[in-house]
Design brief:
The protein has 826 residues and is an all-beta fold. The strands form 17 sheets. Strands 9, 10, 11, 12 and 13 form a 5-stranded antiparallel β-sheet that branches. It has a 4-stranded antiparallel β-sheet with strand order 1-2-3-4, with no helix packed on it. A 4-stranded antiparallel β-sheet has the order 5-6-7-8, with no helix packed on it.
Amino acid sequence: KGEAAIMFLYNLTLQKSSAIVCTAYGNFSAPKMHEIVLSHGKVIEMIRPDAAGKAQSVCSMECFGVVRSLAAFRLPGANLDYLVLGSDSGRVSVLEYSKERNQFERVHLETFGKSGCRRIVPGQFLAADPKGRAVMVAAVEKQKFVYVFNRDAGSNLTISSPLEAHKSNTINFSVVAVDVGFENPIFACIELDYADADADPTGEAVQEASKSLTYYELDLGLNHVVRKWSDPIDPASNMLIPVPGDTDGPSGVLVCAENKIAYKKQDHDDVVTLIPRREGMPLDQPLLITSYALLKQKDYFFILLQSEQGDLYRVTLVYQDDEVSEIQMQYFDTVSVAQSLVILKTGFLFVASEFGNHALYQFLSIKGGDDTDLIKINVEIEGETIEIPHFKPRPLKNLLLVDDMDSLSPIVDAKVMDLSGEETPQIYALCGRGPRSTLRTLRHGLAVSEMAVSELPTNPGAVWTVRGSAKEEFDKYIVVSFTNATIVLSIGETVEEVTDSGFLATAVTLSVSLLGDDSLLQVHPNGIRRIRSDRRINEFTPPNKGVISKVAVNQRQVAIALRDNSIIYFELDQANQLEEKAKPTVQGQIAAMDMSAISAGRSRSKFLAVGSFESSWIVRILSLEPGPNFMQVLSRQALPDRPESLCLTEIATGASSKDGGQNTLFLYAGLANGVLMRIAVDPVTGQLAPDFRTRFLGTRPVKLFKVEVQGQPAVLALSSRSWLCYNYQGRYHVTPMSYETLEYASSFTSEACPEGFVCVAGNTLRILTTDRLGEVFNQQTMKLSYTPRKCALLKGSSNFVVVEADHNCSERKVKEGPDQMDVDGE
């Protein structure tokens, strides 16, 4: 009935693109936070190097479009940057980072043309005025728009209507904003006028087509854009680089062309210098600059240029009173060819590689090379002797690699098959180009790092970690339970067994925890042992020689289930005595139970979840609030199989609580048939939501453990494969871990491992950490010598045949043995 609904289709990939199209550097989340925004095509991501120099992903969000250009700008007097996007939407987007939601939010969205990547619709080029007053968005051909930014009475960002700066029959090659201080904003463009060539049927005019450097001035008083100045430049010019102006430098631009760069400014003579070349490079082979980065300090600046061969050059200008007399260009270092370079004020260089992994370098020196790096070679060209600087590439001297980001770009060929017998196929991909090429094995799951592996005399049944007090930052003990004994390991510089901890060592342990009064609690089948902070020990023995089978505990509450299907519930009173509060009886066999941690500002958890058999398997929510409903069943849910374990915890499915979001109370049920159920629980009434989520995790019964990921609550689910349920960057993830089968786990924190897990696997105790949260695949890499073209699997074996080839390269020497990569991951 009524109008037909309009269907909108979109797609989400399992893993975002790892290639980087463009970057923008600024302070987006806080005044002194140095961050880089990356465009992965249809995804933008913000990264921030930490104190150790590791690039941490802060947020990542889908744009549902192709982001072609990025620029950061800051309004005068502000301390945070906005982000401008040029895309295929036919609109200019202005974004602002929201710390509460941990994502960029749209401030303005102005339409100027048709959607799609068209040659005459702007979006390919973007340039922002250094003082944040205007931005130019330009197309490959003809069209250019200028938008003016300002503030309204409420200090909100305003954007003007677009001001046209079009020029027909013109192709744009590069657009930058010229630094002119607070004078009228000026934008510089490399343009090629093809009007004559288009009208010439003979095609001869194409050879005479020339490029020009054009200045467009935004008159803020008259509110329109004028073509201020144009000057012919080298036909091979490909890039403009703005030079700092106002009080920081002489202003103007550097024009990059084949084999040279030139400084140009209106009413100023050109200053030209040759680009140093590699020793042995043919003179007839052109050399282009492909990317640049600028470091500007109070009274000093330099520009880092990169050639198409990956060589970095440090460029400085010798000038006096805005008159430039010389361009000094020195060989700096050699890195991978970059799509974009970013120099951070914290002393890092980010290289967004065109092919292969992206890299983060730390500056060891910003002085660059000296005269000994350059070799002057005199060459006679057309009867004139020219001195061309050459250099020998060397290992890194001024840069230190501190981190890299995996990138599959480009994937030349790929095969999907299960060669290692993991039941889940692996992806075998040929990636990269030239000597940076790789063969990569991608497995579905989080990458896991082993911090330590310790063999035990027999197979343990369970493991826990516990702090010495609530004020301690790291865990103090690892408690390992066997079939008839318990050992306690002390965590320090080394992990050693101790016998004076107060724990009962002659019985199997069911639970170990730290109570709110800094006393340690050990539950074993024959009772409860409480070790106070002053080393006094209190014991509780179940009546009638009862045997404890299940335990649920938090900071101030303890519930034990006996084999006679009765429950004894305790609470810490005001005198920190463990006081028995109730002893309800549950019909049927109790298989599992749990209670949530106590929320901030509360004295107890409100609910106890109990899974039992009553003609069928069922989970009940019991009330723990004093009053008429105390120990009454608030809600129930039938289960398809026996619950191996229950986990009642609060997890954010959107923005995390530290980012201003709210956690949701969930009941996780790990079933004996390998299925994980997640049911939302009303935090006020305790009602279980009628709809729930299920997921098959493996062939073994699912055991659940409460852990922390980045300081937020998470759930570790162990079956024939281990899974982690966690929140990352405002999204809820349920991801397998690429590791062998684990049988028991607990969270682990120490000085050497701030966040990890201690796990039982067979007769070993292992300390593990997860790497690269949020990623769906982890990688195993084998380097290749040349660009891979095709791969094939030999039938009846696990051997790959890879065809590699590069143009004009010498054959490498045959090694004693072939390159090998174990597809089993060992």
